[in-house]
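To: structure subgroup
Subject: Chain for Friday's discussion

All,

I'm putting the inputs and outputs inline so they're searchable in the archive.
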Amino acid sequence: MFGGIDRRTFIIIIAGFAMFRILTAPGGGGLEMVLLRIPALLIAITFHEFAHAYAAYKLGDNTPKDQGRVTLNPLKHLDPIGTVLILAAGFGWGRPVQINSRNFNDKISMSKGEAIVSFAGPLTNFILGFLFIIAIYVMHMTEAFSAAGQWGTTLLLIMSSCVFVNIGLGVFNLIPLPPLDGSKIMMHFLPYNAKNWFYRNEQIIMMVFLFAWLLGFLGEIVVPIIMLVVYWMEWAVANMLHLFM
């Protein structure tokens, strides 16, 4: 509970406020931006959660497979609140993949296994972002794109959205604060007392985090990092394609 309001209701209120702000943005671009994010959202979250499930399964935990999460079916991975937040506020999450680290094979510690499973999601998003950048560069090089007109422009906008949503989701989830993937990766390297402190204060940290993001404080740090990653990937793709053209 938080101030008499349960956490789920609290997040819904924030998401509703963020959606209203986006849809009523000056210039009418809010709705168009939301629509362009939908295919990117389906791809990014589906592959992100699938990667978590697949990594856990390959490490010996059948829990995600038994729950039907080792699949690329988006309906198995979308979380209603997390989806609304990504559309409205630019961040969010999929339905968390449940794992049982005690089922990991004996070759790896539970802590290390959890870190690997957590990192699999953001890593997959970075790979997808990189592949979409390659696809965009290839499109620009083909005559078919020039002749596609409005359809080609729309496709390019969707693919650009896929780049930013995937890389954004990857960077966002690597923030080392609970309940994000970055916190689970960080836990593997923290001493025992520090881990306990984070576990005890997880809900408070998450509420502060949500406010800080929606008020723009964290965005001033995260957005430049996202742009830097996109710029680096574009530079890498341009140089890579130059070698083969």
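Points worth raising on Friday:
Residues 110-141 form the longest helix (32 residues).
The chain is about 70% helix and 0% strand.

D.
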